[in-house]
């Protein structure tokens, strides 16, 4: 029934007004059956504005603790509490304005738990204090509300919340599932100076004794809880990390894997597990961060990991390893050339890319050798190396490589032509006249890198050509100087 309550709709206004009028009349006449009937009709109407409008009126006139026993019976009060629950759960904004007028209800104990929990966020300090003092059980919502009040700006409220939580932790009355859900809140406590170190230590001591809570947190489907569990676990003794490290290093969240990699590197017994992480880590950012941490370690076995990183599939990982090895006096290009001297190596692609990053002009012979490779990725890497050190003598070869059947390889050849700075309109024009439509798109991208006067000639030729279409025209319009050209 509560799920049928929806925000206010103007179409319900007339019906709600009738229900309210009949409810007020029933309250005046003190007719319990009719009062209960009208409460139910109001809840079923789904009008939250109507529910909110009766709150202060009904409380002050009929449900004041001094007259409560004289005006309504227990059944009516139960129905009223159900209406309160509906209001608080479905439309908290209306409940907020109502909490202030209800604060005396805590003394009589006649207000439902949902309202009491919500009142821990009331703007009135006295209301919050009474709510915190009243809530002393192990309900998950109660625990969360008490943890939030640990950072209240009113000291007595913080003290009451701390006493309640300390007692529950001491007698092991907080359900494990509740603490798992509250881990993000526990992490947040460290951000506030007003939180007592004693209660923080109490939480960490409890979690140290009940490490299964952190294991459940690391396996939780919500990443915010997984990250909170990782942060809390860092404060535990080093000997307990081994139980959690394997779970953390295999988390689907790269930030969690990075966090546990840093934790593992800080301890000798767990360092090997981090070394193993690099062999199957999928995220380049994590591999880079772990390698940076490894670079601080001067152990001999780090050298092997850095040399393996030279052939990583991510450019930033390769470059980091090149730098780290250079600091150690190891020449990375020599490692790449040793691999390229052995044809059909699985590391050929990475070696060619590595030489494009840290090699020298003499390495162009390796690029020329692997241009005829049957593996497209190797041809791509070879063209990238060729474009880095190409001369005017290699320009015909680069034009020829535009015909590669793999689009990615052809685009790399076009990029190599653009970076050489040796493009000529005459060569471009001959290719454009006989090129198919896909090649025309590629040639127009290349034309944008011709000298300005030659670029105007290329654009004029393309715009006057019978094969021009909107696709090709759009490529031309992306040129920075196209509008200037049109105005000529």
* Strand elements, count: 0
Number of self-contained structural domains: 4
For the record, give the distance between the C-alpha atoms at the N and C termini, rounded to a whole number: 74 Å
**Low-pLDDT residue spans:** 1-10, 62-69, 91-111
- How many helices? The count is 32
Helix content: 55-70%
Shape annotation: elongated
Mean pLDDT rating: 72
Q: What is the SS-derived class?
A: mainly alpha
Beta-strand residue percentage? under 5%
- Most strands sheet: none
The whole-angstrom Rg is: 36 Å
Furnish the topology, listing elements before pairings.
Elements: H1 13-29, H2 32-45, H3 48-62, H4 68-71, H5 74-90, H6 92-99, H7 105-108, H8 113-119, H9 125-134, H10 140-148, H11 155-170, H12 176-188, H13 197-209, H14 211-218, H15 223-234, H16 241-249, H17 254-265, H18 271-277, H19 284-295, H20 301-309, H21 315-327, H22 332-340, H23 348-358, H24 364-370, H25 376-389, H26 395-401, H27 407-420, H28 425-434, H29 437-447, H30 452-464, H31 470-477, H32 482-486
